[in-house]
Design a protein that fits this description.
Elements (H helix, E strand, L loop, with lengths): L4 E5 L5 H14 L8 H4 L4 H10 L2 E7 L2 E9 L5 E9 L8 H14 L6 E7 L3 H9 L3 E2 L10 E7 L1
Parallel strand pairs: 4-5
Antiparallel strand pairs: 1-2, 2-3, 3-4, 5-7, 6-7
Helix pairs in contact: 1-3
Keywords: Acyltransferase, Transferase
Protein name: GNAT family N-acetyltransferase
GO molecular function, one term: acyltransferase activity, transferring groups other than amino-acyl groups
Length: 158
């Protein structure tokens, strides 16, 4: 029997745990994120708390008590939920953690008043992330540009 993963929503009081996982993802997969490790590694507690407070939803995937993934979702107020910052640790990849995290955001977004779609951006060369989002019903909003570091928009109507 494989590992059992759980997901926990984070609050600003969880800033230390969030910081550890967020720094891991920025260090191990810098090409996948707009933020840079160097901008956050020495960030004070208040900056981490603000990040968790300013972004409407933040979740941590756990294998027991070990963090193995992270996802966030913002609510810009235009009827959309913006899925962002998906990360799964190397040891947990291929075990369904990404699916669990994406479904968590979809379920939460669907319960938010006025939200009628989930949007995201994914780099053209991040094929595994694209496959994950396509499995959940997301569709590209424009054709590929052929530029690996170009970000493609995807949307899922709710």
């Amino acid at each position: 029997m494989g590992p059992t993963f759980t997901v926990r929503q984070l609050s600003p009081d969880d800033w230390e745990e969030f910081a550890r996982v967020r720094l891991e993802c920025l260090q191990r997969a810098p090409e996948a994120f707009a933020s840079r490790y160097e901008s956050w590694v020495d960030a004070p507690q208040e900056q981490w708390r603000q990040r968790l407070q300013n972004v409407a939803g933040n979740w941590l995937a756990l294998n027991g008590d070990i963090p193995v993934g992270l996802i966030s979702c913002s609510l810009p107020g235009d009827g959309s939920a913006q899925l962002m910052s998906l990360y799964v640790s190397a040891a947990a990849r291929g075990q369904g953690v990404g699916d669990i995290l994406v479904q968590t955001v979809l379920d939460w977004s669907g319960s938010q008043p006025g939200v009628n779609r989930v949007e995201l951006g994914v780099f053209e060369d991040n094929l595994s992330a694209q496959r994950l989002y396509l499995r959940h019903g997301f569709e590209f909003t424009a054709p590929a540009t052929g530029q690996p570091r170009a970000e493609r928009a995807m949307v899922l109507p709710l």
